[in-house]
Amino acid sequence: MLYLAKTSFVVSAVNALLVTLVFYVLASSFVSILSTFMVIVGTLLTPLIAVAANLPPEKVPGAVAALAKDGGTQVLILSAKLLILFFISNCCTIIASTCLLAGISHGITRLLGGPGSFRATAASYAFASAAWTLSSIPVVNLLAPIYGAVLDIIAMRELHEISRAKAITAVTISALIPLIALILLN
Predict the structure, then answer these.
(1) b/e burial code for range 83-102 (CB count within 10 A of at least 16 → b)
(2) pTM for the full predicted model
(3) Residue 107: other Cβ atoms inside 10 A
């Protein structure tokens, strides 16, 4: 479980940083373009902005400049909030899904005659959770579940001393049960 906690922490940190960095670059670019547009058009539309913002016309250029200047700060604050939210949700998702799948898979493995303990099942799923590191790489992230399943199958086969077919059955069924539950709930 300590390995799972470390893995989920590292994977969540990497994923959160990458997503936040992409968001920050895109949002700050958009804000700088919008700010430039506001400064150029704001001076032309001073009477309309004065009426809409209920400001005297002479204060409009200062208000537009302040809004343009504060836009970057707002993006930075929003990016920091996104980083924290994404990190926490990603970390919790990795731990919860790994524990859920390990529990289901252990029950199926025991039904198939596997002599291993729950600790062995949890360890195999914790090691396979390293596949989550690929989830932040575009296109490659489509292969991450397959890679994780292969790691699960190998670990289940070795740790429970069962055949490859039984390991494939246990891992496949344990992945399908939550999927079927989600489909039925919708």
Answers:
(1) beebbeebbeebbebbeebb
(2) 0.62
(3) 16
pLDDT in tens, 150-185: 988 998 898 888 999 999 999 899 889 888 888 888
* Contact of 11 with 135, CB cutoff 8 Å: yes
Q: Look up the domain containing 21 and give its range.
A: 2-185
Total structural domains within the chain: 1
Q: What is the pLDDT of residues 40-76, one digit of tens each?
A: 666 666 666 666 667 776 776 666 666 656 656 666 7
